Task: inverse folding
């Protein structure tokens, strides 16, 4: 059953002399490749475990090779056999991607292939010849996420977009690798979250403008247009309804002052409130929960960093309202 060159000798029983032509040399060639006898190994020669699978990391090359042998394990020295490699996954995807299997230069009968998966998950690798699987094929490939890459980490949740004064706003932090694969245990990493509240109006001052006729309309000029609502609310508590009846609000920039229809100047005193306290809590699903309670209305700037690197999309703007909007049916 073993291939190679055999020496056959025939002797006469009477005098133990070889008969004419003896010995003969016979060459036994290997049979055709027999896939179930062709064993898949890794680049170090270790057998690929079709039961436990192969473990890899996103972005890392996976290589395998095998010897093309016949049913008796004899190496087949031919080249160019139509071996077909394919990989499918991650599950539950059934899409198959070809994996090129090629001859190993200078080593007849040896074949090799390599591939790289960037998406974490479970894959199935197959190596076949004319429909027959090599030994170890198909094999599971378990691809884990790579190391956490801060610039690809992300924040998600409604608390990044809007909130209500006095009510908790929340969002979540997710760690990801360079290839945007979610990584486990985000709570092991040191996130820093900073929230900057908008300036608020603490009081208004009445001031008479000298030598200027009263304008026909009221005007509000603010460096932060989101302060308009808060400013009107503060002012309406200090001044009568009649004094505010003729005001029209327009978003302008640079200054903080209000001019009334009677020519009086209302100058608001603007203060920067303290930043809301942020609570970070590791969650069972591997994310980090973040929550804060806004105390003033307006846009809150949320900056999230992992180490010293901002995460993807940072900084975020959370628009905080004074009260819940009525439901729109």
Result:
């Amino acid at each position: 059953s073993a291939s190679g060159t055999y020496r056959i000798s025939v002797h006469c029983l009477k005098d133990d002399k070889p008969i004419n032509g003896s010995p003969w040399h016979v060459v036994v060639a290997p049979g055709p490749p027999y896939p179930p006898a062709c064993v898949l190994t890794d680049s170090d020669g270790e057998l690929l475990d079709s039961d436990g699978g192969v473990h890899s990391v996103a972005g890392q090359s996976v290589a395998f090779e095998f010897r093309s042998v016949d049913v008796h394990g004899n190496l087949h020295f031919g080249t160019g056999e139509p071996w077909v490699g394919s990989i499918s996954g991650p599950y539950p995807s059934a899409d198959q991607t070809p994996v090129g299997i090629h001859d190993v230069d200078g080593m007849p009968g040896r074949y090799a292939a390599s591939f790289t998966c960037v998406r974490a998950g479970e894959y199935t690798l197959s190596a076949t010849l004319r429909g027959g699987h090599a030994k170890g094929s198909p094999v599971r490939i378990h691809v884990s996420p790579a190391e956490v890459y801060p610039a690809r980490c992300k924040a998600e949740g409604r608390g990044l977009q809007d909130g209500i004064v006095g009510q908790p706003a929340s969002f979540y932090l997710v760690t990801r690798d360079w290839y945007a694969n979610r990584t486990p245990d985000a709570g092991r990493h040191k996130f820093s979250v900073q929230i900057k509240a908008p300036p608020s109006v603490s009081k208004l001052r009445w001031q008479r403008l000298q030598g200027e006729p009263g304008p026909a309309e009221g005007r509000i000029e603010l460096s932060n247009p989101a302060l308009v609502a808060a400013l009107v609310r503060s002012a309406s508590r200090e001044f009568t309804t009649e004094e505010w009846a003729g005001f029209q609000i327009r978003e302008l920039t640079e200054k903080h002052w209000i001019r009334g229809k009677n020519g009086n100047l209302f100058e608001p005193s603007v203060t920067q409130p303290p930043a809301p306290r942020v609570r970070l809590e590791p969650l069972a699903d591997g994310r980090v929960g973040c929550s804060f309670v806004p105390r003033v209305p307006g846009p809150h700037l949320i900056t999230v960093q992992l180490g010293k690197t901002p995460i993807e999309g940072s900084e975020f703007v959370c628009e905080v309202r004074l009260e819940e909007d009525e439901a729109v049916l």
